[in-house]
Design goal:
Chain A: This is PH domain-containing protein. The structure holds 2 protein chains of 2 kinds. By secondary structure, chain A is an alpha+beta fold. Chain A is about 45% helix and about 25% strand. The radius of gyration of chain A is 26 Å and the shape is globular. Classes of the chains: A alpha+beta, B alpha+beta.
């Protein structure tokens, strides 16, 4: 259909980038010895090496080709000394991702990543193509006509920005914003950014001056995380059509993802403390070898479940009920409880011995205490249940509660017990999705585990 | 093999001879390491042998509880009494299988069957050779009618 075509020259740059360390190693050695003649020799060697590797990159670019055939299948070819072909059929793909990082945008290239529907169907393929070729490839392999569209606006976009950042720094932002009482205003993003500069002064009132570096580090991380998340939501939209769910957006790094709906393996709604405060919940999708932990696909508001149903037909949330806790393992509390107790004890001791360290030790104790509170929720609500033809689960991790719905028709399941669990009729359940993602639900009632196993067996 | 002729459910357990082969395999590393431990002292050697023998005995007990059952939609493997494990592999997800026999297993009339599915694999060690073939054929045949992709 397309005939054999070459990749974009950036395809070869990918190889050059991997060899950067080769140039740096001799330079570092010489710089430490401060031998300038040797430095000049090393630079000459680097230049020769660079010329050689550029030639190799040119050969790689020359020997690699791609082609779309009449049936819409993609052929990747390598023809130098050895001839190698790889055939990628549309139905074997779960996700097609088109990225336009800054460098690629400047050179007119797009990075197309093809994620197979299951492990064992070949590796994830990464191809640098021209913009037009990338669009042609994506439209052929996974056409996504926009039949239903969703644009996050106002508060929803703000929620997408906030929930896409890392949780610790977001907590700080939300706390500060709530103090101002204007978190939902249209200028809340600007307000949040302005407040960042005031954070140092605010914390310095009750933290020892020695902790300034910690504050600075957190602020910088927060700024980067927020900027990245904000950049992701610029011109962001989600649409569905032709059995494909797609999203597109981004400022500096524009990303478009297309999910084949019949290959989606799991939808994960993450209830973080911030999400609960804002009453807006991010939805993450995994499909085949695409893990989907990076950015949420969209954010929906409480009571807006119709949007969920429109974008992800067949999605079922785990039933909202408390699980029986009789005989449940106390392992839920160990990951956060042990460090919390340790830091609390150290803080108490430091009050007598070194009072200036008390705040420093109390802070992590507080953080881990929040983890213990989250574990309490996990203790009461974690579980797995078949629900309306889907396997659903609730799993607590850190401060978040993951509400998952398994779409894959063939997930693996492992149910294991220890002697204590046998006596108490409890079991740990592990769900294995086609891409290799594992969800481990702890100490659920044996009857619930049996129901999940029977759901897959019958 | 025709699916309609497939006995449902197909249930597989380990024969005593196959279990003996498994125990022999498990004992071999201990037998190899024992002289080095005895070199450190008679008591150390005796303790090592007793410990290893106990492990092999426990393995034999665990192997005795092994069952694999092929249902219409999934293969279910149950293993262990004190630490029971139940694994469910949907038939639709199983992509390939590997059967191998060593001379000892051939003498015992058994094979090792390894099943691969995306993200997971399962070994059925020392199951009767005929049942391994049956399982293989049933699992790698065309998907059951209700599972056929639309």
């Amino acid at each position: 259909m397309t005939g054999l075509r070459r990749y974009h020259p950036l395809h070869a740059v990918g190889f050059l980038r991997k060899t950067l360390l080769l140039y740096l190693l001799p330079l570092v050695q010489v710089l430490f010895e401060r031998d300038w003649d040797a430095l000049r020799t090393a630079l000459e060697q680097d230049l020769a090496l660079f010329a050689f590797l550029t030639a190799v990159s040119g050969v790689i670019l020359h020997a690699s080709r791609w082609e779309l055939d009449q049936e819409g299948a993609l052929h990747l070819r390598w023809n130098l000394i050895v001839e190698r072909r790889r055939l990628i059929r549309s139905r074997e793909l779960a996700v097609v991702q088109i990225e336009r990082p800054l460098l690629a945008r400047l050179t007119g290239a797009n990075l197309v990543t093809l994620y197979p529907a299951a492990r064992g169907q070949g590796k994830t393929a990464r191809l640098y193509l021209t913009r037009r070729d990338a669009a042609l490839l994506a439209d052929t392999l996974m056409p996504a006509p926009p039949e239903q569209e969703y644009h996050p606006r106002g508060g929803e976009r703000l929620a997408l920005v906030l929930l896409g950042t890392n949780s610790l720094s977001t907590l700080l932002l939300v706390f500060l914003s709530l103090r101002e009482g204007r978190v939902y205003t249209p200028s809340a993003e600007l307000l949040a950014l302005t407040q960042l500069s005031q954070t140092a002064a605010w914390v310095a009132r009750w933290l020892p001056a020695g902790l300034a570096w910690l504050l600075t580090g957190l602020t910088v991380l927060f700024g980067l995380s927020l900027a990245r998340s904000f950049g992701h939501t610029v011109h962001y939209r989600v649409w569905r059509g032709g059995g494909v769910l797609a999203s597109r957006g981004g400022l500096f790094r524009r990303v478009e993802r297309r999910f084949r709906l019949d290959r989606v393996s799991c939808a994960d709604v993450r209830l973080s403390p911030v999400a609960r405060l804002l009453r807006r919940y991010p939805v993450y999708l995994s499909a085949g070898c695409y893990k989907g932990t990076e950015t949420p696909l969209f954010v929906y508001r409480a009571g807006q479940e119709k949007l969920l149903e429109e974008l992800l037909p067949g999605l079922r949330m785990p039933p909202a009920r408390r699980v029986p806790i009789g005989g449940r393992s106390l392992a839920f509390f160990l990951p956060a409880g042990i460090p919390c107790a340790l830091f609390a004890l150290l803080a108490l001791v430091s009050r007598q011995v070194m009072p200036e360290l008390t705040v420093l030790l109390a802070l992590p104790a507080l953080v881990f205490f929040a983890g213990v509170l989250a574990a309490v929720e996990g203790f009461f609500r974690e579980g797995a249940w078949p629900s309306d033809g889907r396997l659903t689960f609730r799993r607590q991790k850190g401060l978040r509660m993951h509400c998952g719905c398994v779409f894959s028709p063939a997930p693996g399941l492992v149910m294991s017990q220890n002697p204590w669990a046998v006596v108490k009729r409890r079991a740990d359940l592990t769900l294995v999705l086609p891409g290799g993602t594992r969800w481990n639900v702890r100490s659920i009632p044996l009857d619930d585990g049996e129901r999940c196993a029977q759901f897959l067996e019958e | 093999m025709n699916n309609s002729a497939e006995p449902h459910p197909l249930r597989v357990t380990l024969t005593p001879r196959a279990r003996a082969v498994l125990c022999l395999w498990a004992a071999l590393p201990g037998v190899f390491a024992a002289p080095f431990v005895f070199w450190q002292g008679l008591i150390w050697g005796a303790a090592f042998c007793a410990g290893w023998a106990l492990l092999v005995f426990l393995l034999g007990l665990r192997a005795a509880s092994f069952t694999a059952e092929l249902g219409p939609r999934a293969l279910t493997i149950r293993l262990g009494v004190v630490f029971p494990v139940r694994r469910v592999l949907p038939r639709r997800g199983i992509t390939s299988a590997l059967v191998f026999r060593t001379p000892l297993l051939r003498l015992a009339g058994a094979s090792v069957l390894v099943l691969f599915s995306p993200g997971m694999w399962a070994a059925l060690p020392g199951i009767p050779a005929r049942q391994a073939d049956l399982l293989c054929r049933a699992l790698l045949a065309a998907p059951p009618p209700e599972e056929a992709p639309s």
